[in-house]
Amino acid sequence: MTSLDNRSCAINEPEQRVERDAVEALARVRDTRVTCVLAISLMFVFAITDIWAFPSEFIIAWAIRLIAAGGLLVVFIVANSAFFERHYAAVILATYLGIAAAVNALIFLSGPSDFSRDIYFSAFILINMGLFTWVHFTARGVVALATTIVCSYAALMILRHDSLAPQNMAIFCTQMLFIFGSALIGYMSFALRNRYLIDNARLRRALELSIWNMKNVNGVAANSKRNMTS
């Protein structure tokens, strides 16, 4: 690298870091609000299924959905604040663990005759999709959060509904395969997106450096020409 390249790197690096941090902050706010809006909407849409899938306690199920929706509304409001920027990781952890807790509560309260015990696992597929799409954690952080949520569901089904019993094991294993498959697809999409973002940042940096160098070379050439004519 030439001295001119070194100088251009020194000049552009702070500006690029500030710009990158600003873009990332806006993306965190946008994606968190999208998560909240979609989660609240889906909670109320799927509340209709409680009437036939959760007939034993559907009033309690609606109360759980309302509490979860209220928490998501708070997150939506807080997302555009300095508190959110400072405590982004904690807010996101509370958001996704709260959604998972609401779903687990519905499954926990399901009776032997309620279809909700066997079909509400699909909520964890949606959680995985949102987690790997809109959470701005590292790959390890996202995987750790997804693993925690899935393990909480598996433990609930085993301890509460005896899903390892021979008559229940086939359904439980199928559910876990669907959840694991959604997590795998989500992770691959997450990794691919990050790779594209890194490649885009490198190409943008190379273009900016090229433009900066070209301007300086042209300026040096113009000064040399003026000196020769004077």
Structural features, described:
The protein is mainly alpha-helical and 230 residues long. The protein has one domain. Helices cover 87% and strands 0% of the residues. The protein contains nine helices and no strands. It has helices at residues 3-46, 50-53, 58-78, 82-86, 88-109, 116-119, 122-134, 139-161, 166-229. The chain is elongated and about 95 Å long. The two termini are 33 Å apart.
Percent strand: under 5%
Shape: elongated
What would you report as the Rg, rounded to the nearest angstrom?
Answer: 25 Å
| Tally of structural domains | 1
Question: If you average the pLDDT, what whole number results?
Answer: 86
Count of strand segments:
0
Q: What is the oligomeric state here?
A: single chain
Query: What summary fits the major beta sheet?
Result: none
Q: Share of helix among residues?
A: over 70%
Along the chain, the helix and strand elements come as HHHHHHHHH
Report, as a whole number of angstroms, the end-to-end distance: 33 Å
Number of helical regions: 9
Low-confidence stretches: 1-11
Q: Label the structural class.
A: mainly alpha
What are the key terms here?
mainly alpha; 87% helix; 230 residues
Provide the fold topology.
Layout: H1 3-46, H2 50-53, H3 58-78, H4 82-86, H5 88-109, H6 116-119, H7 122-134, H8 139-161, H9 166-229
Helix pairs in contact: 1-3, 1-9, 3-5, 5-7, 5-8, 7-8, 7-9, 8-9
